[in-house]
Write a structure and sequence with these properties.
Layout lengths: L5 H20 L6 H33 L2 H26 L6 H32 L2 H21 L1
The structure holds fe (ii) ion (2 copies).
């Protein structure tokens, strides 16, 4: 079976999360059950994705080149942390039928979209330059395997 290289795999994850986020932001205040379900799905996708990036892709990228990579690495890591520690837990404690929920979903969506766009436009572009096709394949393979493990355990 043909596998995705690292960048294809991460982009595919981004697309999936973008879709779930727009589904969530299109729900109404009455759709409590749907909102909770979508939020749990998003949380799991984001956790698995952030973890494979932090365990596998970011460290490889960081080692690959100059100062600019170091800066991108630290920015990206802190953005993961903010979503994981602040925005998602806050949203989980928010009543899904409230106006606040709607507003907090908007914040989550904006943050994740900004983060994914920066990765795609800066980090992945640079990664494409510094890694060989073989290295990208190998990183993709490792992340796909790790994703499967994490999906079972998270
Ligand atoms: Fe990320
Ligand atoms: Fe990402």
């Amino acid at each position: 079976m043909a596998s995705l290289n690292a960048i294809e795999l991460l982009r595919e994850d981004h697309e999936k999360v973008r879709q779930l986020l727009s589904e969530l932001s299109n729900t109404t205040n009455r759709a409590a059950k749907k909102r909770s379900e979508l939020l749990q799905k998003i949380k799991k996708e984001v956790e698995v994705h952030a973890q494979i990036e932090e365990e596998i892709f970011y460290p490889a990228f960081r080692k690959s080149s100059a100062e600019e990579s170091e800066k991108l690495y630290h920015e990206a890591k802190e953005e993961h942390r903010a979503v994981d520690r602040l925005v998602l837990p806050d949203l989980e404690e928010t009543e899904p039928t409230s106006e606040e929920f709607q507003g907090r979903v908007k914040v989550l969506k904006d943050m994740i979209e900004h983060h994914a766009e920066e990765e795609e436009q800066e980090m992945f572009v640079k990664a494409q330059e510094v890694f060989s096709e073989e290295e990208l394949e190998e990183l993709g393979q490792r992340m796909a395997e790790r994703k499967q493990e994490l999906r079972k355990s998270l």
